[in-house]
Amino acid sequence: MADTDIKKGLAGVVADVTAISKVNPDTNSLLYRGYPVQELAATQPFDAVAYLLWHGELPTDEQLAAQRAEGRQYRALAPEVKTAIDQLPLDCHPMDELRTAVSAIGAIDLAGKGSVLDAVGTVEENRARSLHLFAALPSIVAYGQRRRQHLEPIAPREELDYSSNFLWMTFGEEPDPVVVDAFNRSMILYAEHSFNASTFTARVITSTLSDLYSAVVGAIGALKGPLHGGANEAVLHIFDEIGSADNVVPWLDDALASKRKIMGFGHRVYKRGDSRVPTMKAALDTLIDFYDRPDVLDLYSTLEAEFVGRKGIYPNLDYPSGPAYNLMGFDTLTFTPLFVAARITGWTAHILEQQASNALIRPLSAYDGPDERHINGYRPDT
Ligand code: SDX
């Protein structure tokens, strides 16, 4: 096979069609079911965007109320999930906790439900499972952070919306509307992004007719990587290393000399900036004002200007979201789990879409190993 046929990392390869989102690097735009993500982030509660991704239309008030009523049963931390998490070491990575929790939920839901031939489930079963995970993840992520801080889980409050309740269960304080709005915007921006590595992982697993939970566990594993979702955590590690704006230049000299990837910058699809960054940066700016932290803006802007100036590589969504979550009070290790709590909507929308028009995903490989050879003295049985 000619080398030119090989697209390492599947870069530039169109693997399938999707109606869920359109990422357009030429216009630097992102549409969720046709709506610009900026409009959704400015006007919708996150759970309405979840409905849009799953069903293709924004919900009526009645449809949103029905979704909220159905999701309410899953909001509290389930005892079996708490048990599954509690048997893990306190210092295991929260993405491993999350992977374990989703696996436990899936194993329990699928118990006694037949053989692998029944694994894939019906569309209605998988819509219900999608809502279950969407509604359950906030309590799991919140408990993970509180457990590492030796704090008890906090029960959900029925009267609070998705974002307010997430913040309540994490911090146990009445969240300020400024913080709720910034958090809600971040979840909508993180929700969906076509065939990114973790979503494509979920589609590959679904294409074998495996179950939704297995596909989500695989996607969590893919998202953990610092080249993908783990970058938002890594951005804060970099900020902590640099310390303050006046240390950016020497730090960057050093980092680039040792060929380090600067986390939060660059993108496989966007090459002139990530369409979501301006909206997330505006949310970060409101938090910087709210918490009176001009030092954060100083460091953020100095590193961005310096790196873009030198390499012409622009920030991606993880760059503004890392400091934003830090200002909200989330532990750095909680950042990528927040990405999971948002992206569960995109992943499950793609799982449903793959299921609806499935073909086993199995690309080819070119071989460059040894030519055929044989074992000395081996004589095949005649
Ligand atoms: C997400 O796909 C999605 O949609 C993902 C995502 C989503 O919503 O699902 O948007 C979320 O994952 C965003 C990306 C988060 N990752 C990071 O911030 C990690 C740092 N970024 C890089 O590792 C990199 O930019 C990638 C992996 C994101 C994209 O890389 P590509 O497209 O594979 O390009 P590349 O790595 O081949 O880079 C091309 C050149 C290389 O230089 P050379 O080796 O050719 O000399 O640019 C350099 C790279 O070294 N480069 C960087 C860099 N990004 C690219 N150099 C330093 N720091 C960087 N961040």
From TrEMBL:
PROSITE patterns named among the record's database cross-references: CITRATE_SYNTHASE
Q: Which domain of life is it from?
A: Bacteria
Entry keyword annotation includes Acyltransferase: yes
Gene Ontology biological process terms, A to Z: carbohydrate metabolic process; tricarboxylic acid cycle
Catalytic activity annotation: oxaloacetate + acetyl-CoA + H2O = citrate + CoA + H(+)
Task: List the keywords (alphabetical).
Answer: Acyltransferase, Transferase, Tricarboxylic acid cycle
Q: Which InterPro entries match?
A: 2-MeCitrate/Citrate_synth_II (IPR011278), Citrate_synth-like_lrg_a-sub (IPR016142), Citrate_synth-like_sm_a-sub (IPR016143), Citrate_synthase (IPR002020), Citrate_synthase_AS (IPR019810), Citrate_synthase_bac-typ (IPR024176), Citrate_synthase_sf (IPR036969)
MF terms per GO, please? citrate synthase activity
GO annotations of cellular component type:
cytosol
Name the residues annotated as catalytic in the UniProt entry: 267, 318
Question: What pathway is this protein said to act in by its record?
Answer: Carbohydrate metabolism; tricarboxylic acid cycle
The answer to keyword Phosphoprotein applying to this record is no
Question: Which family is this sequence assigned to?
Answer: Belongs to the citrate synthase family.
- Official protein name in the record: Citrate synthase
State the species of origin. Microbacterium saccharophilum
Top-level taxonomy: Bacteria, Bacillati, Actinomycetota, Actinomycetes, Micrococcales
